[in-house]
Amino acid sequence: MKPLLLDDRLGTLPDYPFARLTALLGAPSGPGATVMSIGEPQHAPPPLAAEILAREAGLWNKYPPATGTEAFRQAVAGWLGRRYDLPAGLVDPDRAILPVAGTREALFLIAQAVCGRRDDGKPPVVLLPNPFYQVYAGAAAMAGAEPVFVPSGDGPTGLPDYSTLPPALLERTALAYLCSPANPQGKVADTALLERTIRAARRHGFVLAADECYSEIWDQAPPPGALSVCATLGEGLSHVVVFNSLSKRSSLPGLRSGFVAGDERVIAAFARLRSYGGAATPLPVLAAATALWNDEDHVVANRDLYRAKTDLAERLLGGRFGFVRPEGGFFLWLDVGDGEAAAKTLWREAAIRVLPGAYLAGTGADGRNPGQRYIRVALVHDLQTTETALSRLGALLDG
Ligand SMILES: Cc1ncc(COP(=O)(O)O)c(C=O)c1O
């Protein structure tokens, strides 16, 4: 039999973190298990979503337009304008916004749209923070680009500052991913860092992909967004695209509904690509999403619950494991000395499932994996479950 011609770039990707976790611990079975390895919100979704999905059920027999509905694009534009205090007209709902099936597919596909071939034959560079959301690396590899991991500093302290990289590297860069609030460290990019990054993107001609899917889960203050910085910098949304979804904001990871917004040239290219290979968002889902982007009450309640769990985590774990209160998002990034060993202990002794930090990072230029000492703990359960699990975690890992 003749062998198949599979794409060998797939073989260069590490196994996805959850496959690695299954290899380490076995399957996540058992009724008593507390799964804190995956960022899958277990909060009750707003009832509005189910109500609208039921009301619009007559639309399931229609193919949805890839560009969504006008009402959806208007709702997203309105939300962006209110959330980031944007001047009217900065984000054109018809040319600068697209619905996507969650940010994951969009963060992956964007690399296929913006990593063009270079005249000198060298592969374009994709910049990634390290540690990072693993989809960025898969996207870079499958786009035929060279991924460059940029250290975020040890612990929950830092975010990459791409503007300080050598100009020759930035000249080769096609795309830079920046996640704020950051998964896994919970750090928020301040306005100054976003400004430096956007200026660098414009000077060197690369696209900044700002992954803002945790933007509404914040502790003390709402994180600035890349579009709010565009508003103060001038020159429109040039070189910037932001990604957001209802997965974390509205506890609806199963709805698969998000958006991408930004530079109209990038959005046009992306729309073209997605009209071939993207999953269009179903009309009932677009209707629910429209209502949810227009509603802030459920978001406030959701955020309050996360904040209560962060308070709890600080009370139970503060002063240990290098605990730093996350500025945003819902992950604890704990220094336990050896993340894999800690994950095994927690699973074996308490059926608590956490992710070793090494699975969320790549080996840096110094030969070190910056996540190796850490575990990532997702605070996605109710208060009681979280309290029980964190108390056990603290007791077990203290040895
Ligand atoms: C940093 C980051 N970006 C993107 C996503 C994808 O989320 P979704 O596709 O549900 O919008 C996740 C999900 O966990 C994430 O942690």
TrEMBL record:
GO terms for molecular function: pyridoxal phosphate binding; transaminase activity. The keyword Isomerase does not apply. InterPro entries: Aminotransferase_I/II_large (IPR004839), LL-DAP_aminotransferase (IPR050881), PyrdxlP-dep_Trfase (IPR015424), PyrdxlP-dep_Trfase_major (IPR015421), PyrdxlP-dep_Trfase_small (IPR015422). Residues 36-393 form the Aminotransferase class I/classII large domain. Keywords: Aminotransferase, Transferase. Its cofactor is pyridoxal 5'-phosphate. Pfam families: Aminotran_1_2. PANTHER family: AMINO ACID AMINOTRANSFERASE, L-GLUTAMINE--4-(METHYLSULFANYL)-2-OXOBUTANOATE AMINOTRANSFERASE. This is N-succinyldiaminopimelate aminotransferase.
